[in-house]
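Q: Here's a chain of 648 amino acids. Please give me its 3D structure as tokens.
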Amino acid sequence: MLVAFGVGALAAEQALLPGTPPRAWVPSGLAGAAPSPGGYAPDGTAGRFAALPLRAVRLLDSAFRDNQRRNTAYLLFLDPERLLRSFRLNYGVAAAARPCGGWERPGSQVRGHTTGHLLSGLALTYANTGDDAALARLGSLVGELAALQARARQAGFHPGYLSAFPEAYFDRLEQGRRVWSPYYIIHKFLAGLIDSYQLAGDAQALDVAVRLGDWVEWRTSRLPYAQMQMVLRTEFGGMPEALANLYAITGAERYLAAAQRFYHARVLDPLADGIDALAGLQANVTVPKIIGCLRMWEETGSGRYRDIAQSFWDIVTGHHVYVIGGAGNYEHFHAPGAVASQLSNFTCENCVSYNMLKLTRLLYFHQPARADLLDYYERTLFNQMLGEQDPSSPHGFNCYYTGLSAGAFKRQPLNYFPAGNPDAYSTDYDDFTCDTATGMETQAKFADTIYARDDSGLRVNLFIPSQVACPETGLMLRQVTAFPDDPVTRLSVVSGAAVMTLRVRVPSWAAGPPGVRLNGAAIPGSPGSSRGLSGLSAPAGPWIAPWIALRRLWRAGDVLEVRLPMRLAFEPAPDRPSVQAVTYGPVVLSGVSRTDPGPVTPALETASVRRTGARPMTFEAAAGGRPARLIPVSRAAHEYYTVYWQAV
């Protein structure tokens, strides 16, 4: 039995008998075809038009580009032979390379997951930067995986099976025996292969994905509903999303039918009714299920899927996030509003925010007028994701948690590696985790949401130095900004001429009306002008609008300058309002110290907080009777930092 949402894919489901392996299937006309430029499946149906291709946006010098460069260096440093060692041994092929550590160690039940993320990271890097070395490394990895998949029957597996661990793990899963997340790993391979095909044009990757997707369809079609629900108690990552994406690429409805089998009723049914039953659920196990629901809504039209996705986002961002946008303590959701009572150095697993940003991006494509979606995206990106990477590491190591206790410290996850170096975010090979892996993608795709398209032109969502080629108009625009240190962004037309509406987001944190100048002259309605707000979108509040919107003939040399005033603010914890975090615009400030300040939440004299440095942004205050130095939390590295204070 499948969840009955009235989807046409159910009627087309293959009738395979238990024990019957899937037939090999190659989509007619697709196996050797080039990927569609505007059809990147993970962007969803709305994103086919709203999202800009990664190749159209180039990062300019900034912390984001620095992170991207370090990440690329790590992706190209990793030895494929070491990552493929467990795969080779699983298929009876000799492997001389040294084993990896952490969750990739030989005995780990989730070994192999990093390779899937590596495929995605390389594909994203190539799509955004055109790095030929990334493309070559990607093609080599896909070829090796294809050769191993072809040995599946010889190794005693069903055709199409691809993994670094035996297929018997799935027998254990279906029998209700304990095993660690085998479908989670299959999702990583499917996602990486889809990215390899659509972002880098590797046709062989689609063939491997199709064969693996057919294996999943066969494996799950054998199970009655109750048994499948038992299977879903074990983490399965974004399987429904990957299968929906495979359906979008191939048009084969059996993938949509297989995706529906991953509807986890115990978790999703309450959300469909708007009920917050998240307490106790593991956060990163849950968020990918919601991304899958959104993609299934797009592909099936079922409003139930849509309601689940929207309800979840509203509940989490309204009642379960910390000031930096992250969620979860010790990887789990807790009671609604529990913030001050859930401060530790194990808050805000970075994988959770990686997935929350994916979900937010997909929702935004459908609701571009909702300012809260981009406000959340910006808050999480600038404060957590940008700061998850070690700026002193040439390989851009990523930490597992962004802790928010008093005297938090970015480091290896000590609950998994208690003997690890406390001053290291990660290492090259010894402590692979899921956050090592998602970091490979996060730091490769910063360019993907800076801009978006609509029917009339271009939207500037985020203030990140970058250059964008507008596909429909031929305009090339450059955004130059020192944001958030300087709250001004300048958008100049580098080349081309076209009539277009250029929209620039006005965030909810803006402390006053935006200052807008076009070619040096103030736009009516901006500070310093006494005339009306002609030429700007209708305001949503008393003095600001969600978007500055200018429609005109744009020509090379035009410059639009937007100034967004910032102010200090104090955000109270819902469960203890006297415990507060300090923000400046979208930036969350942290008090930093070279020595451990201890576990007690320090008292902060809120009236004493003042800015002392412009670029880089620094503040000072009196905390516990002593001077404290405050900087953006994303820039705290290899030092103790405190985000939440006892306000006095």
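Q: Can you summarize the key feature?
A: The two ends are 59 Å apart (CA to CA).
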